[in-house]
Design goal:
- It is a single chain.
- It contains 2 helices and 5 strands; from the N terminus they run ααβββββ.
- It is α+β, with helices and mostly antiparallel strands.
- The chain has one domain.
- A 5-stranded antiparallel sheet has the order 1-2-3-4-5.
- It is elongated, with a radius of gyration of 14 Å.
- The two termini are 19 Å apart.
């Protein structure tokens, strides 16, 4: 991956790490946050946060980023996600679970 792509992936991972530190109630409030526009070197992208309620009372949190390719059509995708519960416990998402968000 080129340096812009690596930097973008690091941005998405850092946002996921920050969200893990927030209290459950605060993360629930982020469900309708607007997408963030970012620029990494010469490339433009977006980073959005998806917060979905679970039947168990927990939430699924996915940070999803799209970075435009520089010279050809298309976008690179970076994702980070986890589950958080009212008792503040956290569980990871599996790689396969991200397929629902691309």
């Amino acid at each position: 991956m080129n340096s812009a792509g690596a930097a973008f992936r690091a941005m998405v991972e850092e946002r996921g790490a920050r969200l893990r530190e927030l209290p459950f109630a605060k993360i629930k409030e982020l469900a309708n946050e607007p997408v963030e526009n970012v620029v990494v070197g010469p490339r433009k992208g977006t980073i959005g946060t998806i917060v979905l309620a679970l039947p168990s009372g927990g939430i699924q949190v996915v940070v999803q980023g799209f970075l435009k390719h520089r010279f050809m059509p298309g976008k690179s995708v970076a994702m980070n996600g986890f589950y958080k519960y009212p008792d503040e416990t956290i569980a990871p998402m599996t790689s396969e679970e991200f397929w629902d968000f691309d």
